Amino acid sequence: MSYHLFGTTRSIELKNEFGLIIGLFDEIGLIRSGAESQTRGSEAEVAIQNFPPSQQLQVLGIKPSDSNSSHNKEDSTMVPTKNVFIGIIGVGGVGKCFLSQLEVLSKRLAKNPSSPKLSLVLVSRSSKVLYSPEYQALPFESLATKVTESTQKPLSLTEAIDFLSAAPSNAILVDNTSSQDVADQYPQALSKGVSIITPNKKAFSGSYKLWQDIFSAAASSGAKIYHESSCLAGLPVISTLKDLVETGDEVTRIEGVFSGTMSFLFNSFAPLEGSGGKWSAEVSKAKELGYTEPDPRDDLNGLDVARKLTILARMAGLPVESPTDFPVQSLIPKELESIESGDQFMQELPKYDSQMEDLKVAAEKEGKVLRYVGSIDVAKKEIKVGLEKFDRSHPIAALKGSGNSISFFTKRYGADPMIVSGAGAGGEITAMGVTGDLIKVLERL
Fold first, then answer.
1. Helix, coil or strand: residue 62
2. Average pLDDT for residues 76-91, to the nearest whole number?
3. What is the spatial order of strands in the sheet that 382-391 belongs to?
4. What does each C-alpha distance from 289 to 110, 282, 285, 347, 432 come to in angstroms?
5. Model confidence over 257-299: pLDDT tens digits?
6. Is 63 a catalytic residue?
7. Fewer CB within 10 Å: C terminus or N terminus of the chain?
8. Is the per-residue pLDDT at 80 higher than 50?
């Protein structure tokens, strides 16, 4: 932080803990917002020129010193470094990407003495755990391998939460799993002051009681809970809807393509140009390219999309009990629903290609294409997931690859909805959403 007493140069530049300018006290005795101090844009001023010069620094929470040397000394100690302790559960695809991004973020923050110091003190995967009992930061080098080779006694979820809650300063749990068991422990962690960041959609689309317990625990303890990547990876869908609701807008309808897997499948199976391949061949290709779950039925049953719509519907004010409370069209042939293995399912799927082919041809005769979409009508309290036919000129029909597109219809936006679109899948993109949430929590602790 830099400042000069009133004289020919009368300015105080205020920076937050990330080194960003948040205010400027200038020659006319005003405090300006960071945006104005750099661009002279929108005004955010508070006059303090009526205070005596000896008190003007104190208005800003700065204690004047007697000499320049003491000013400089105080500059270096005015904002003590804040330690934030981090525990991670899950170092699979998303988890490994997050570890890499966390290392980059830690190094960047370390360059600014006033930024928080991130100390990774616990990493857990399956039945293995690596943690620092004395809360010393674990080195990032070969961390995933070290976790796998760890001989430390595994911690239960409760023990891991207790370990983080006993940290000397603020603690954050990053859950990179899709585990319902981990999600069920969120209220316990939050009630003990441990903030949570996660892409785990099961925590927010499971029972409505769990949803209520999670946010009630966070409100009571002051711990933070962020889950941007629980819906469409790193796309700002959760934060956009949250901003709309919290600023008082009335959300009337939400609709779009909510699955990168389904988007890829139908953009290949029923493209705007050409005829596309057989349905089973497109599913097989998507599996080989990593677009589907190891068992493609976990995508084709529509439950993944239903979970995302459950989350958004709850945020929009609908008390949806579970993802099975509304119509969800499964693309698994009834004859194959009871097959035990995913491999056997893929072997049998070609026998039923005609079912999907008939639907595609029917749409083509109307000059349309098939797409798998979801919609929430807030006013009517109706939610549905399934196949719909779209004109070839419709934006949803024109999506490419695994692209997603979500439209928010609100009172403010009228007939011209706010649209969020882009890639909504992939480890790096999902991890980016998690890392972005971490930055938000750091700003608020």
1. coil
2. 79
3. 382-391, 368-377, 251-257, 403-410, 418-423
4. 38, 11, 6, 18, 21
5. 999 999 999 999 999 988 899 999 999 999 988 888 888 999 9
6. no
7. N
8. yes
pLDDT, position 113: 87
Please tell me the distance from the alpha carbon of residue 262 to that of residue 51, in angstroms, as a whole number.
Answer: 63
The angle subtended at Cα 290 by Cα 287 and Cα 292, nearest 5°, is 55
Percent of the chain beyond pLDDT 70? Answer: 82
Q: Which CATH superfamily is domain 83-233+431-444 in?
A: NAD(P)-binding Rossmann-like Domain (3.40.50.720)
Half-sphere exposure of 287 (CA within 13 A, CB side): 18
Contact of 169 with 83, CB cutoff 8 Å = yes
Which residues make Cβ contacts (< 8 Å) with residue 265, sequence separation at least 6? 282, 283, 286, 291, 372
Q: What is the CATH number of domain 237-424?
A: 3.30.360.10
Catalytic residue chosen out of the listed positions 202, 224, 308, 360 = 308
Whole-number Å distance between alpha carbons of 340 and 285: 21
Name the pTM for this structure. 0.79
Measured CA to CA, the distance from residue 150 to residue 41 in angstroms comes to 54
